[in-house]
Specification:
The structure holds two protein chains of two kinds. By secondary structure, chain A is mainly α. Chain A has one domain. Helices cover 74% and strands 2% of the residues of chain A. In chain A, strands 1-2 form a two-stranded antiparallel ribbon. In chain A, strand 1 and strand 2 form a beta hairpin. The model of chain A has no long low-confidence stretch (mean pLDDT 85). By secondary structure, chain B is mostly helical. Chain B has one domain. In chain B, helix 1 crosses helix 7, helix 3 packs antiparallel against helix 4 and helix 4 runs antiparallel to helix 8. Chain B is globular and about 60 Å long. Chain B starts with a helix and ends in a 6-residue tail after the last helix. The mean pLDDT of chain B is 88. The interface between A and B is medium-sized, with 34 and 33 residues.
Chain lengths: 262, 266
């Protein structure tokens, strides 16, 4: 375990050193991320004009969901996407061989291969959204709720990571998959609203097929102190199942990997 | 354009169409990435379910956002990324050697994708007709004519802006982040995420003088019968002024930029 912790630190340091060469990107990326966050905020401001609640969510509560959406986007852009895009390239070029030869778990190595620290600027934007959210609600979050929210944020990251890993596994079988990540991003975009605004078939999809509700609505409910036990257990079970399924798919895919160069 | 130019453009169009057809799977995925109108429909639909939002009831919103999906399919342009890649790896040099202007080739690429995008839009159009009924669509043939003109105008504004920002790569090495900023503004102010008439009045007035709403909002409003003849004609005329302005600006940028092009890496 300590060996893997040391490995993670090493990989992180390599990414930070790499990113430090492009410091100007920090400002530019930061500015762009903040502008993009406003594309999610503007519709909310328009929708809440002159009304107190939408689908059972007040403005402050919806901002809390948007905060978790932005936070997860930071994780996605800063830590998950860069590595997984790299794996897809490895698979196509056949350079995954070099990763497989290393004496550590391949999934761990490819998942921690690249971080884009500058992209994580959205953590700050998310913080601002949380502050705005609780100002609109006129109270501060309770300590126990914060701890619970942290737990469900972890399950959210697990779920998101597993989903992305499943997409990567398809790269072993499909030839050209570079825009599959764009497709996943487009689907994840639906997580910006509380899941109860969706109705009918779409609601079923965002709850069970691509469990976006697990990722933003559940942690937001936890932070707001509104999470019921059944939803909490379902969220944890969902994350565990997704993680297991993605690990299984990864080992299966590796077994059928024949390298591109041979 | 001379007659030769037309023949060459026809040939380019054929090649681009075959390419689109060869990579149809990838194109389909790109189409599927435009989920945003549906995500917006969910939010605003939930709002309108309780009480109408401005002049929009639930069925108006369904018509609006399905029309948005279709208009976006027909008018999007991705040339900016292509130009950036070609300037960076130097392959633009090959295009400059050909006896046809690179901008015509880019236009052919964009145009060639249209048939496939129309095919994909058909199911959405059918849902639009079935869900909100034909009564949301304009009955006046003149409005349909204006709609066609507005689609052409919107397509040209997108192409010119995309080419213009792409041409900035001659000066900045990479202009993809400029395109990112433009896109964010476009998303918010074009009517793609929020119908333009839901904005506060002063902001709405300002949007008349920006190009964004003429790219999505205007064609969608015409298709959903929001404008009469005179109003529609005035708006389309204004749209084409933006087409001319964007075209002029883009050509100037392109000419100055190509003069600086050093084909490094090529």
């Amino acid at each position: 375990m300590t060996r893997y912790a040391r490995l993670l630190l090493l990989q992180l340091r390599a990414s930070v050193v790499l990113a430090a060469q492009y410091r100007a990107d920090f400002l530019l990326d930061g500015a762009i991320e903040i502008v993009w966050t406003s594309t999610a905020l503007a519709p909310l401001l328009v929708a809440f004009q002159g009304r107190a609640a939408i689908a059972g969510w007040s403005f402050g509560e919806a901002l809390c969901v948007l905060g978790f959406f932005t936070l997860l986007q930071a994780v996605l852009e800063g830590a998950i996407n860069p590595s997984l895009v790299a794996v897809v390239q490895h698979i196509r070029k056949g350079t995954l061989d070099f990763v497989l030869l290393k004496p550590a778990d391949a999934q761990f190595l490819v998942s921690t291969a690249r971080f884009h620290p500058w992209r994580s600027i959205n953590v700050v934007t998310a913080g601002v959204l949380f502050v705005l959210s609780f100002r609109a609600l006129g109270r501060a979050p309770g300590a126990a709720d914060c701890a619970l929210a942290l737990v469900f944020f972890t399950t959210a990251v697990t779920g998101l990571y597993s989903l992305w890993l499943l997409v990567v596994c398809t790269a072993f079988h499909a030839v050209k998959i570079d825009n599959a990540a764009d497709l996943m991003n487009a689907v994840f975009d639906a997580a910006r609203w509380p899941s109860s605004v969706f109705r009918g078939a779409v609601r079923f999809v965002v709850t069970f097929v691509v469990p976006l509700a697990l990722m933003t609505t559940v942690p937001a409910r936890a932070l707001l102190g509104k999470l019921d036990l059944a939803t909490a257990l379902a969220a944890i079970a969902g994350a565990v199942v997704l993680a297991g399924a993605s690990r299984w798919a990864w080992t299966r895919s590796l077994a059928s990997y024949t390298s591109a160069s041979s | 354009m001379s007659r030769d130019d037309f023949t060459r453009f026809g040939a380019l169009l054929r090649v681009s169409m075959l390419e689109t057809l060869a990579y149809r799977g990838q194109m389909l995925v790109w189409v599927l990435t435009s989920t945003m109108p549906l995500i917006m429909l969910a939010l605003f639909g939930a709002v309108a379910a309780e009480a109408p939002l401005g002049r929009y009831g639930p069925s108006d919103l369904v018509a609006y956002f399905l029309a948005t999906f279709i208009v976006r399919q027909l008018t999007s342009s991705w040339v900016s990324w292509q130009i950036n890649a070609e300037v960076q790896d130097g392959t633009l040099a090959m295009r400059l050697l050909r006896p046809v202007h690179p901008l015509l080739a880019y236009a052919a690429d964009g145009l060639a994708a249209l048939p496939l995008r129309v095919v994909v839009s058909i199911p959405v159009a059918v849902i639009l007709l079935a869900s909100s009924g034909a009564r949301k669509l304009p009955a006046d043939p003149w409005i349909w004519l204006l709609f066609a003109a507005s689609i052409a105008g919107a397509w040209l504004i997108s192409l010119f802006v995309s080419c213009g920002i792409g041409a900035l790569a001659f000066f900045l090495e990479s202009s993809t982040k400029v395109m990112d900023l433009w896109l964010a503004a476009f998303f918010v102010f074009s009517g793609y995420l929020i119908p333009v008439d839901l904005f506060p009045p002063h902001l709405r007035a300002a949007l008349d003088y920006l190009p964004f709403r003429y790219q999505i909002g205007l064609p969608v409003e015409l298709l959903t019968g929001a404008h009469g003849r005179a109003e529609g004609l005035a708006l389309v005329a204004r749209q084409w002024m933006f087409v001319a302005a964007a075209g002029t600006l883009m050509l100037t940028l392109w000419r100055r930029g190509v003069a600086r092009f050093a084909a490094y890496g090529g």
